[in-house]
Fold this protein.
Amino acid sequence: MNTKIYILVDPSGEIRYAGKTDYSLAKRLCVHISKARKGEKGHKNNWIRSLLKNQQLPTIQLVGKATGNWQKEEKAWIAYFRAEGIRLTNIADGGEGASGSVRSTESRKKMSKNWYISRKGIITGMTGLHHSIETRQKMSNAAKGKKHSIERRRRSSKTQMGKASPRKGKHHSAETKRKMSEARKGCVPWIKGKHHTAETRRKMSETRKGRIPWNKGKKIIK
């Protein structure tokens, strides 16, 4: 039997957890959400609860499959993501809590070619997997009406102040940028053909009021 190696992705596109499962991805995601809602402790569950309270959900993506020694495969992926500076919520190094293993440089390069981060999230060779309409509706209903308190939002904001992005100071090479450009060619934007309702546009406008534009005071290169 093939064991699936998967990742949980934040709505912002950031990878936050890597794990393995013998279930379907949809079922595994439901299990994660259920455990978080029941109050189980741990960084991962705290992260998922923070999303639920903000009416958001993580997404699940397949990154690989393992036949037999899945422990080694899971450890390698977790070690790879951590080496890339990704803030995983995993407590252990994978493989039922055993210490992590690191693949050779050549193996890591091959793994690197199988995925990349885009504005939408993770693009892999297994794209095209989607939750059913019924599953999405259940997940939406579970998250409705749950919001952070003003005090909680204030604490979260204070905690994030001064924190540097894990990618700060890092730059893709010209070759990497070329490959990313080639991979995106022909992709249809998820928003194409869709339009926000008047109510949604009003809420978005209210949310942005008072914010300082990210490019204010910066020189625009033409």
Q: What stands out?
A: Residues 2-147+170-188 form one domain. Residues 79 and 206 are 42 Å apart (CA to CA). The first strand starts at residue 2 and ends at 9.
